[in-house]
Amino acid sequence: MSDINIKITDREGVTHDVIAPTDMSMNLMEIIRSYELAEEGTIGVCGGMAMCASCQVYVINDPGLEPMGTEEDAMLAEAFHVQDNSRLGCQLHIADAMEGLEVEIAPYP
Questions:
Q1: For the chain, is the Cβ count within 10 Å smaller at the N or the C terminus?
Q2: pLDDT for 109
Q3: Alpha helix locations (H) across 7-69?
Q4: Which GO terms describe its biological process (predicted)?
């Protein structure tokens, strides 16, 4: 079993230090949901299919994220509140290389 440490700032501006398992095939959206860091029904609306951008986060510290895929890039091109450091939490699969990741949850449309 392997865990990593992530800092997540919620939509109220409160920063949470969370522990995320790397051996459970979870993504960042699922971590945010499991820690209840966003109001129910405002994150992962599409179920993690990169079709709604409700799990959009702003990456503050990138310790080594995988590059953005074409589906994620296309969804962010149509989303609200997009910044240069925007990513979809559902597309960020928890891995050892993410140790020290810091993100802020984007506003919900």
A1: N
A2: 83
A3: 28-34
A4: P450-containing electron transport chain
Instruction: Provide the domain limits for residue 69.
Output: 3-105
Total domains in the fold of the chain: 1
Q: What is the CATH number of the domain that holds 42?
A: 3.10.20.30
Q: How many residues does the chain have?
A: 109
Does the model's pTM come out above 0.90? yes
Q: Residue 59's closest CA among 89, 79, 30, 18?
A: 89
Residue with tokens 């949901």: 33
* Side-chain-side CA neighbours of residue 3 (13 Å): 7
